[in-house]
Amino acid sequence: MTIRAIALNTFKEAVRDRILYLIAFFGAGAIVLSRVLALLTVGDRLKIIKDVGLASLSIFGTLMAVLIGTGLVYKEIDKKTIFTLLSKPISRAAFLVGKFAGLVLTLAVMLGLMSLLFLVILFFHSFRIEAALLVAILYIFVELVLITAVAILFSCFSTPILSSIFTLSFFLIGHASWGLKTLIVKIPPGLGRTLAKGLFLLLPDLEALNFKTEVVHGIAIPPAALLNGLLYAACYTAFALALAVLVFRKRDFI
Question: Which domain holds residue 106?
Answer without folding.
Answer: 2-250
